[in-house]
Specification:
heterodimer, A: 258 residues, mainly alpha, 79% helix, 0% strand, B: 311 residues, alpha/beta, Rossmann fold, Alpha-Beta Plaits, 6-stranded mixed β-sheet, 4-stranded antiparallel β-sheet, 11 helices, 35% helix, elongated, transport (chain A), ABC_2_transport (chain A), transmembrane helix (chain A), membrane (chain A), ABC2_TM_bact-type (chain A)
Amino acid sequence: MDVQTHRGNLIMNTTTMAYRNLLKTIHDPDRFMDVIIQPIMFMLMFGYLFGGAIAGNVKNYLPTIVPGILIQTMLSAASGSGSQIREDLDSGVFDRFKSLPMAHIAPLAGQLFADILRLVIATVTCLTTGYLMGWRPVAGFGWIVVSGLLAIFTGWAISWIFALLGLLAKNATTVQSFSLITMMSLSFLSNAFIPIKTLSKTMQVIAYMNPITYVITAIRQILATGSLTHEALLVLIFGFGIVMIFAPLTVWAYDRNN
Amino acid sequence: MSVINAIEVSHLTKKFGIKTVVDDVSFNVKQGEVFGLLGPNGAGKTTILRMMTTLLRSNSGNVKIFGHDTLKEGRLARSMFGLTGQYASIDEDISARENLMIFSRLNGLSRSNSKRRTNELLEEFSLVTSADKALKNFSGGMRRRLDLAVSLITRPALIFLDEPTTGLDPRTRTQMWDTIKKLVAQGSTVLLTTQYLDEADQLADRIAVIDHGKLIKIGTPTELKQQVGGTSLNFTVKEIDQVDTAVKLVKDEFDTSIHQNDQQINIKLKKIDQLTPLLVSLQRAKITISNLTVQEPSLDDVFMDLTVGKN
C-alpha cells in the first residue's frame, strides 16, 4: 500500500514547524520565565531607583522608561531565538529535518513564528507592569495596542539577525554571551532610560547612531500623539528590510553547514 | 530491461581539512537487498551514510538514489528514503504521537492521513500505551522504535539505518532485528552501518568492510568468511611436559599455522579433513588432550583480519 503524499509547500511546512515549537513550549512553560521576569524586574528596579533622579518622580519617568524597557525586552527575547536555534541544530532531530523533502527555510521560519508568542507575552507583561506602576499614556488603549504591535514586529525582525548568529556560532553559550553584550550595549547606549540631551557630545553621536533609539522614539511618539508618525513608518520599512536581507542569509547559512 | 540500483555510489571522497575520511569509495546496492557497511569506530561509515542521505556534501564523486543524483535532484532523492540516525533523530521535548504527527505533516501527508498513519505506526511498534508520555521517560529501545517508526511514515522503498542497535540490550536488539527483517520481507531495501559483526551476519545480504575511509572488501558474509578461510581447532594438552612434543608433531606432520599459549594450542586447519589424522597422531604419541573445540571462521575473524582500527 502506498501512502498518499503531496509535495509539502513552504507555508504548510512552516506552520507545522511553528506548531512543533509551540508544542515544545507548552510542554515546558519554563521557557517563558525569562520574558516574564526580566521586564518586571527592570521596570521595578529602574522605575523606583532612577525615577526621582531623572524625572523628578516615578510617574513622570514612566513615559520614558516603559517604551525603553519594552524594546530592551524585545531585543532579549529576539536573542533567545538565536540560542534556541543553535541548541536545536546540535540535537539529532535537525538531521531528520534536513533529510526530509521539505522547504529549507521551514525549520527556521517555524521557530521564529512560534517565538512571536514569546514577544507577545513579553509585551503584555511589560505594558501591564507599567500600568500597575501608574503609567497612563494619553493616546488611549487603541494606540497602546498599536505601539505594542510595532514593538513585536521590530523584535521579530531582529530575531532573524540572531537566527543567523545562531547558525554561524559554534555553540549556544557563544550565542548567549554575545546576545547579552548586544542587548546591554544597544539598550543602554540609546534613549531607553535617559533623555539624550543629558549626554556628552560623543555619547550623543553614539546614541543617535543606535537604531534602537529610533524605535523607542517612534513608540513614544505613537503613545504621545495617538498617530502613526513619520518615525514609525521608517521603523516598519527598516524592519521589512532586515527580514528581506536576513531571511535569505539564514537559509544560506543553514545550507552551508552541509 | 535492467532494473535500476537502489543506490549507486561512485568514487565518493570526503576530506575534513587535510584529512581524507572517505577515500574513493564505490559500490552499488540492488533493490530489495540488505547492505551492511561494517567497520570499526571512526572508519568513515557514518560519513558515507551522511553523504548518501544529502546531509553532507562530498568533495568528489556522486551518489544516485534510484537513479536520481543526490546533488542535482536533492529533493526528489530525499523523498525516496527514510533515515534513522545514530543519535535519536526525534524530538525529545514532545510526545511520541506528536513526533509522528509532525513528521507525517512534514512528509506532506494531509491531516487526516497523518492521524491514521500515526495510529498505525504506534500500533505496529507497540508504542500505543506510551504514545502521549514525554520522551524523556522512554527507554533506549522505545526511542529507537519510535525513531524507526518516524523513518517509515511514507513507507520508503529505501531505508538507511545508522548503527540501529548500538547501546541496546540483547533483548531489544533482537526485537530490532526482527523489525528490520520484517521490513525486508515487505520488499524494502535497507542500508545499515554497524560495528557488530553478528548483526551484519544476521541481517545483511552483502557487506562492505570499511577501514580508514577505504572500502577494503565487499561480498556476502559467506564469501568474506571463506576469504579469511580455515577452520580453527583449539585444545589443551593435559600434561605440561607433553606440550613441546605436541607442537613439534603438529608442525612436522601438518603444514599449518600454530599458536601456543601455555598448555593451550590453536591450529588453523586448511581443510576439515585434516582433523582426523591429526587426532590420530596425537593419540599415537600418547598425548592426552582436553577442551577440544572446532570453530568455523566468524565475521569477527574477518573484521580482525581486514581492519586495523584507529587505536
